[in-house]
Amino acid sequence: MKQVLLVFVGGGFGSVLRFLIGKYLNSTTTGIPYGTFAANIIGSLLIGIILGFAAKNDSLTQSQTLLLATGFCGGFTTFSTFAYENHVFLKSGDFTSFALYTIASFVIGFLAVFLGMFLVK
């Protein structure tokens, strides 16, 4: 039960922070989801740092890892919103934004995880 509570609390904080970033960074004028992109990239960097730190000499407890990686990063990042925003790009015929957003999200997201793990070595 403690593990579920840790994931719940971390996920709640992550979700609220993602909502606020999206509210202030997503562009209603251009429709470009800067907030979702930022949350996913920052979350990728954070999970790299957290899991890299956890792997380094068992620096974090299982509870801390659940709270931060599974809970916070899981609530902060969002694949479902990313998928929906890509659906909107495709539906509107904006194939360039679709391609750029998708490729940049994957490439920069992976690089952010690797960077986070590298930073804690």
From TrEMBL:
<keyword id="KW-0472">Membrane</keyword>
<dbReference type="InterPro" id="IPR003691">
    <property type="entry name" value="FluC"/>
</dbReference>
<keyword id="KW-0406">Ion transport</keyword>
<feature type="binding site">
    <location>
        <position position="74"/>
    </location>
    <ligand>
        <name>Na(+)</name>
    </ligand>
</feature>
<keyword id="KW-0997">Cell inner membrane</keyword>
<comment type="similarity">
    <text>Belongs to the fluoride channel Fluc/FEX (TC 1.A.43) family.</text>
</comment>
<feature type="transmembrane region" description="Helical">
    <location>
        <begin position="66"/>
        <end position="84"/>
    </location>
</feature>
<comment type="function">
    <text>Fluoride-specific ion channel. Important for reducing fluoride concentration in the cell, thus reducing its toxicity.</text>
</comment>
<keyword id="KW-0479">Metal-binding</keyword>
<feature type="transmembrane region" description="Helical">
    <location>
        <begin position="34"/>
        <end position="54"/>
    </location>
</feature>
<feature type="transmembrane region" description="Helical">
    <location>
        <begin position="96"/>
        <end position="120"/>
    </location>
</feature>
<keyword id="KW-1133">Transmembrane helix</keyword>
<keyword id="KW-0915">Sodium</keyword>
<keyword id="KW-0813">Transport</keyword>
<feature type="binding site">
    <location>
        <position position="77"/>
    </location>
    <ligand>
        <name>Na(+)</name>
    </ligand>
</feature>
<keyword id="KW-0812">Transmembrane</keyword>
<dbReference type="Pfam" id="PF02537">
    <property type="entry name" value="CRCB"/>
</dbReference>
<keyword id="KW-1003">Cell membrane</keyword>
<keyword id="KW-0407">Ion channel</keyword>
<protein>
    <recommendedName>
        <fullName>Fluoride-specific ion channel FluC</fullName>
    </recommendedName>
</protein>
